Amino acid sequence: MAALGWLTPRRRSATARSVLAGEASAEAARKSTRTDEADTAPPAEREPEFPVPGDDRAAAFFDLDNTVMQGAALFHFGRGLYKRKFFETRDLARFAWQQAWFRLAGVEDPEHMQDARDSALSIVKGHRVAELKSIGEEIYDEYMAERIWPGTRALAEAHLDAGQKVWLVTAAPVEIAQVIARRLGLTGALGTVAESVAGVYTGRLVGEPLHGPAKAEAVRALAAAEALDLSRCAAYSDSHNDIPMLSLVGHPYAINPDAKLRRHAREMDWRLRDYRTGRKAARVGIPAAAGVGAVAGGTAAAIALHRRRR
Fold it and tell me: Do residues 192 and 172 lie in contact, with contact meaning Cβ atoms separated by under 8 Å?
């Protein structure tokens, strides 16, 4: 387990379990990374010096659900496990409803996320870590690849082009997060760490889900281990739950923000990007019809999937 000496001074609101979850996630993330050759990024309109090319003490941290990807990775993962007969139709119906609600509301509900987490832990208990990693590759192709927001992906690629590392930071299982990061060409991922013994899941977590303050702890731990200067780093999220993580860095971005984050971002003069509606999509230069159609189609598919499987 990572040493507490990694951590720089933190807000007292972080619990011991948040610290444990953050350190476990940072340790897991550093086991699987890639190094990109530095390149010179073209000047961005109105932000010609960010990201700064060649600044190896800067990095970017991206939330996953509704920031990089439409919907929740954990719900897509559940659909893939159902297809492989990991659980029954009644469980899929719950996953479908949670996903539909998440898409329509656009925010993270603690009770929904808790239910999804408990369901996932019970489903994977007794399965081998290697098995879930292999299945995660297939599920990404089946359900996730087409749900990546083009605008957010372009932001991540701008950091990579500038020679910086880019990490996903998500409450989804770290194994799934790492699959997504690798498929997107990112450096790695920080995610929730499920306990395993001899390569087999026990059905318990290490610490707690990587959510809220735990995300900030994971970023703080990783930054210390990688010798990053957080004041030169960027973070991107859609949720007010990630304000602790966004507040750590010198360049916070609100992406597809919920109402609370939008208000906070405006008060703090943080940058905003919204890829969800026609008007906002046009402003940031992505195809509006494609974005809206993907959201609507994904919601319908989530609600109806269990009927099609009958």
Answer: yes
Query: Can you read off the two tokens belonging to residue 104?
Result: 């329509």
* Marked catalytic residue, from 65, 238, 242, 258: 65
Measured at the CA of 235, the angle between CA 292 and CA 8, to 5 degrees, comes to 155
Question: Which helix (H) or strand (E) covers residue 167, if one does?
Answer: strand 165-173
Catalytic residue among 55, 63, 242, 258: 63
Indicate if 65 belongs to the active site. Answer: yes
Active site residue 238: no
pLDDT tens-place values along the chain, 310 residues long: 444 333 344 544 567 777 777 777 777 777 666 444 333 434 444 544 679 898 999 999 999 999 999 988 988 888 888 888 877 666 556 555 555 554 455 455 555 556 556 666 777 888 899 998 899 999 999 999 999 999 999 999 999 999 999 999 998 889 999 999 999 999 999 998 889 999 999 988 887 888 889 999 999 999 999 999 999 999 999 999 999 999 999 999 999 999 999 999 999 999 999 998 644 433 333 332 223 223 333 333 333 333 333 4
Q: How crowded is the C-beta side of 263, counted as CA atoms within 13 Å?
A: 3
Contact call for residues 275 and 288 (beta carbons, < 8 A): no
CB 14 within 8 A of CB 216: yes
Between the CA of residue 182 and those of 33, 157, 281, what are the distances in Å? 8, 13, 26
